[in-house]
Structure formats: C-alpha cells, structure tokens
Amino acid sequence: MDKRKMIVHSTHAFLGIVHFISLWFALAILITGGDFILVIFLHLLSTAVIILAGFSTHSIFSHLGANRTAISILAYEPVLVIIAISAFMLTGSFDISALYASEVPPLYKMPLAFIALLLILPVKLKKSPFDVGEAHQEVVGGVELEYSGIFYEAIYTAKWLDYVFCYLLVFLFGGSNIWLGLILVVLTFIYINALDNSTARVSYKQMLRFCLWVALPLAFANLLLTMFNIL
Amino acid sequence: MNNIVVQIILIVLAPFLGGLIYGIERKVKARMQRRIGPLFFNLSMTF
Amino acid sequence: MKLNKYRKKSPWILHYNAGGCNGCDIEILACLGPKYDIERFGMINSGNPKQADIMLVTGPVTKRSRERLVDIYSQMPEPKVVVACGSCTCTGGVFRGMYNCEGGVDQYIPVDVYVPGCGCRPEQIIAGVVEALAKLEQKTKDIEKSIRLDRSPQINNGQMDRREIAVEIAPGKVFG
Description:
Chain A is 72% helix and 0% strand. Chain A has 9 helices and no strands. Chain B is elongated, with a radius of gyration of 15 Å.
C-alpha cells in the first residue's frame, strides 16, 4: 500500500499527468527521428503544462517555482531553437534522422553549438549553478510542491525522462558514430555532476544574463559558421 | 537508431533508463562528496 | 547484513524546528554528512510535507510554533511517523514549565519514537529513524486492514447513525 493521495484539485493532478505524457511523446519523436522543431515544441508544451499546474494552486511557493521555471525556459529555449536551425543548415532538413545518419559527426561541424548545449544543460536538468527552478532547500520544491502520492510519481518519472531527453540531445552530436555519441554522453554526465558539486547557486538574473549573453551568442556564432560552411 | 525495433524498445524502456541514470547519478554524487550513497536495490526486495 | 531489512522503502524526511536551540538540528545535518551518511537507507531530506514519510521534530514546542507544527503534521499524507529528537522535544527538558512552552511535542501530535539526549547524537538519531521505519511498515500494513464491527449501525429516521459504534471501536478490535 502506498501513500494516501492528497490532491489539491482534479485539474492540478490531471496537468501533472499531461506533463508526463507530453514529455514521453517528445522523447518518442526524438528517438524515432522526427522533426527537431516539433520535439522542442513538445518539450516546451510539457514545461508550460507544469507551469500552468503550478499557477493553478493557491500556494505561494508553487507560484514562486512556476515563475522560476518560466524564467529558466526563457534562458534555454532560444539556444535550443538556434541549435535546431544550425542542424537544419548542416543537413538541409529539420529531421533528426538526418542527424542520426550523417557520416561526419555533427560535433566536428558545429562544435560551438555543443558548447552552448553544455552551458544550458544545467538549466534544463536543474543542476547546481542554474537550479533556480528547484533550489532544493531555498524554495521548498518548485512547481512539484503540491503533488503527492501517485501523482507525484508522474512528475518524478517525468524528471527521469528529462534525463534521457537531455542525454539523447548530447548523443545526437555523435552522428552515425555510436561510440563517439556514447563517449560524449559519459563525458557530459561527469561534467554535469562535477559542476553540480563544485559550484554554488546563482540568482535567476545572473542565470538569465549568462544564458542570453554567453550561450546564445555562441549558438549564433555557430549558426554563422555552419551557414557559410567555414568548418 | 534506424532499426524500428530498437526505437520501440528504447521508447518503452525510457523511464527505466532514466531511473537508472538518476540512480547512478545519486551514487556518483555521493561518492564525489565522500559519502557512501544509496545502495543499488535488490529488485526482489521491492515486491 | 542486518541493515538490509530496513532498505525496503526509501522514506523521505521532513525536519521541523519547533523553537529549539538548533543543537539537535546541527546533529540532524551531521547525519546527512559524510560520516553518518543517512542516504544509505535511501532517505532524502525533503522540505516538503506532502511528500514526506518521517517527521523529525526538534525543540520544545513554543506557543508561537505549535500552530505551524499541527498544520505541517496535518499536511502529511497518511502513513506517517513522528520522531521526537532531543530531551526538550520528548519532555520539555530545561524549558518545562516555562511561560512560553508546555512540556513536549506529544501534547499536540502523536509521537512514535522518542530520541533522548541534549544534543542527541547522530547515532541515536539513526537508530531512532531505523526504529521508525519498522513502525512505518507496520502502519502501511494497518491501512490495508478492514475494521469489522460487532453490530450493524442503526437507522434512525432514515439516517444511519455510526456515532455510538465509533465510540466502541478500540485499537484491540481491529481485525485482519
């Protein structure tokens, strides 16, 4: 027997499950090699749904977490879109299967995009320098604060799916070379854990400034490099 | 990744794969902080 | 290994300071540190009552904090265990009988495990929490049990009246 379910209201619980399902759907499209823009849109939709759930309660900490999650979307979403456009410039289509099938690994063709992705991954995974969305002891728990019981299980499993999503994005840079992709995934895993343990949390303004002034110009520079076929 | 069977297996097993990654991450994080960390569970104990 | 018995579930801990001197809180934080690593049992210190299983209370319950204490306790979902850490929390300690607090946390919420000591040691806290895990497992089993009544509720004026029977239900009358 598990914990008793305590739900705030039925829409709140339903939005949590929609978050899980839409994230899984985005992951499925990413695995089967669908449209990159659609994947990014579905991931945004799942995050928007959880923000809506956070705003649907009366708890102030839930509102705070929803606000901060919205700000972190503002930080990482433009960079992801520009990485997708760079991939379009490289392969000629928005399909991810073209990236999976490319003979030259995309890492050699767009290295700056990979660095930009490394800079925004802590925001997406809620890791330490940029974990304003959760900030585990500071604001109580972010948007998932009001969930409990089996509905929290959906949110928690969605968090696991987010890990697979992010590491698959890293895996994409290996192209058809699976071993290069796996090495990249392992290196990114070690990098993110080391960063998580060695840095302190920054405020959300600093995070936004860093992402929009460092990661976004890097992605733009990579877009220009790929557009004029310099590398 | 172009084989349809591999894709379907990956999609179905994605939550378990994510859980595995999360568990390894908790362990690695604990070892980085010189702690022992959570042990890997015996699956037969959960039922 | 002896500890394997308690690794069945990973309980999440909620820590509440009911007006104490922060001595016991530091010891609880030491439990999370490298030497006495409480995450071996899968425990996470979550600051969220809706997802927590075990509530660690420290400090004598002052009159300012008792409303929050009862509030937080009532926000936790049902199989829940309360561990009182420290002498002040168990009995009132040196603050017993003062104007701003009454002795002990068990005057307000039901307590399952008492951990003594002024500045209770981390080993004692771990032993108390492991004791609480057994109680938690017992409580989760008790939820599944049904209560069999000796006589059926009477119907007065078309309404079922269970109040008299509810008085009779004692803890000994719970059957499996």
